[in-house]
Amino acid sequence: MIDPNAIRERILGTLPGSDVVVSDTTGTGDHFEARVVSPDFAGKSMVQQHQLVYAPLQDWLKSGELHALALKTYSPEQWKKLGSR
């Protein structure tokens, strides 16, 4: 069972200065949703953004300990246009 804060800390380790919110979507500690707003995403495709987020989580994904992670990724400009919902 993974704590959402552990996921958040790993993402921040790779993307420092990002706004990261992680929630356990099922209460089972293996299905999560993450919203990541990072200046590192500027000019990158959604696929590239997701690759940056998944990179520090590969060991948990490969072991199955982290079964699912739904991502919503935004550059600060994209997030601002959405009204920071």
From TrEMBL:
Q: Which domain of life is it from?
A: Bacteria
- Show which residues constitute the signal peptide: none
- What family is it from? Belongs to the BolA/IbaG family.
Question: What is the protein name given in its UniProt record?
Answer: YrbA protein
Which species expresses this protein natively?
A: Melittangium boletus DSM 14713
